[in-house]
Amino acid sequence: MNTMRFGVNYTPTRGWFHHWLDFDLDEVRADLDSIAALGLDHIRVFPLWPVFQPNRTLIRPRAVEQLVQVVDAAAERGLDTAVDGLQGHLSSFDFIPSWTTTWHRRNLFTDPDVIDGEVHYLRTLAAALAGRPGFLGVTIGNEINQFSSGPHPDPDRITPAQAESWLRKVLAACEEGAPGKFHLHASYDAAWYQDDHPFTPGHSALLGSATAVHSWVFNGTAQRHGRTGTATEQHAAYLIELSKAWATDPHRPVWLQEVGAPAPHIPAGHAAEFTEATIAAALDCPDVWGITWWCSHDVDRALADFPELEYSLGLLTTDRTVKPAGAAVARAVEQWRGREHRPAPRTTALVVDAGDRVSAPARSVCAPGGAFFEAWMRLAATGARPTAVLAELAGDAGHLAARGITEVLTVDQVEHP
Q1: 403: left (phi over 0), alpha (psi -120 to 50) or beta
Q2: Cα separation of 160 and 238, whole Å?
Q3: Hey, is 165 helix, strand or coil?
Q4: CATH class (in words) of the domain with range 5-336
Q5: Which class for 290: exposed (0-12), middle (13-18), buried (19 or more C-beta within 10 A)?
Q6: CA distance 129 to 110
Q7: Counting beta carbons within 10 angstroms of the beta carbon of residue 61, is it exposed (0 to 12), middle (13 to 18) or buried (19 or more)?
Q8: Over the stretch 166-205, which tens digit does the pLDDT of each residue have?
Q9: How many other C-beta atoms are found inside a 10 Å radius of the C-beta of residue 383?
Q10: Domain boundaries in the chain?
Q11: How far apart are CA 218 and CA 63, in angstroms?
């Protein structure tokens, strides 16, 4: 039975992710109690890389032990745990070890010593967790692709081939540490939308146990289409279906690993409605592994220098009170509890032509304002349930049949209003 997974990205109420510096298991347990009360079945947690591996050859045993305690505490409350490895980037802040920066500046993706350190670290985390109840697997890092290109102010520039080589090495390290677990990598939407970005759609759709998508409508979608526009409410569903164009497995699982209601693009009074619409649209997509909301708890306003929208993304407040969006997620969980998730195939496919399949040099057609994006949303606004197919596969009868596609449309065939 294909049961939908519902979870949340865990943001501790006391000290945010800096809580690893002053770890308090009782506080963590209280946070997890409030998450479990929503009916959720998993969390995604974020060990800070410099805290856990402050030197290339030093992985702090106490920090790893504390991570194991979090995973165990979650399991005691019926919550499975996915662990992110290389943190990496979180809520506008970078957390990179000192052995990769300034006087020790080395490329995160190509330097042999750095890669050795990353592989050892990821293997160590995975091995420490491999036998723990509820441990799902390791995600390489939170949107670590943002370090590889602009608009990052100091990128470690690489080619798509170098990105793939790095991904294969670090994913293999996770598999060595915890064989058979749910190991994957996660990119922010530049992988799908930015023409010259070295992490490509193919990397996301082909490497790892599942395809992870992160849906944020502050990327121009809400600005262009408004808070209740089809494109805004179906952006997450769009990314899920777009990812399938590059997948060779017609039923590859897709994890909506991050999605949230960012103010002011989604005003606080509209957050619950947006949440309900986003979840409903995502649940209408076949082969979705799960939905993991960003994030569990608000960021404490005593902490400085976050972008304004980051403070209010939680399903719960910092005193663990359920917010309207949290209540909306809880209703969805209750509605789907025990039900099989098997939506009908999406039989209409829109052709996406991003150029070469491997490098996708024209993938900006998929971005908000791009020809493919806007045509897909026009179709969706009519009540259609479109998916996506690569131009080179649009005439492949076997590929279309495997995906249940019976109608193929080009962008030019989708009428403008």
Answers
A1: alpha
A2: 24
A3: helix
A4: alpha beta
A5: buried
A6: 27
A7: exposed
A8: 999 999 999 999 999 999 999 999 999 999 999 999 999 9
A9: 7
A10: 5-336, 348-413
A11: 34
